[in-house]
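We were asked to recover a plausible sequence for a given structure. The inputs and outputs are reproduced exactly as logged, with field labels preserved.

PROBLEM: sequence recovery
POSITIONS: 159
GIVEN STRUCTURE:
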């Protein structure tokens, strides 16, 4: 059983929950007054504490159990503020750059990112890199080496 899809699903779920917690914490800071005035009159609030839109008529997070669960898990807001939206966008930007940096670091450790995700293309690129590095064991034509590797793998499957 391949674990890659399961790990990807858990990662996505944890990222969504983390984004929701980030938005909820910014909302709590706004309501406490730590990020500027947050009184009952939205017109008197700073721009980052004003609601952007109001979806409470159809999608209220206090009246509907479904939207209450969405609020608890993923930070859903029926009246999101600009500060909450900025926090959400900032969270996803930071997550994107962290994953991108990690992927680049892993690729550098492995000697480069393959041009294709197919095993044959990855093997061909790795063989070409080893031949170009001057390894005396692998001197010669990279395509010939790859053909030899593919022939061995197909003959081993026949046993």
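RECOVERED SEQUENCE:
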């Amino acid at each position: 059983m391949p674990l890659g899809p399961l790990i990807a699903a858990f990662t996505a779920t944890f990222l969504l929950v983390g984004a929701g917690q980030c938005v909820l914490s910014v909302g709590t800071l706004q309501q406490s007054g730590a990020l500027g005035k947050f009184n009952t009159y939205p017109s008197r609030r700073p721009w980052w504490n004003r609601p952007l839109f109001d979806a409470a008529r159809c999608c209220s997070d206090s009246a509907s159990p479904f939207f209450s669960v969405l609020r608890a898990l993923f930070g859903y807001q029926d009246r999101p503020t600009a500060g909450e939206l900025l926090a959400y966008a900032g969270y996803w930007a930071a997550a994107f750059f962290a994953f991108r940096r990690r992927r680049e670091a892993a690729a550098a450790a492995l000697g480069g990112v393959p041009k294709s995700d197919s095993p044959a293309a990855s093997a061909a690129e790795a063989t070409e890199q080893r031949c170009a590095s001057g390894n005396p064991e692998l001197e010669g034509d990279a395509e010939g080496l790859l053909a030899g590797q593919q022939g061995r793998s197909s003959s081993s499957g026949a046993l």
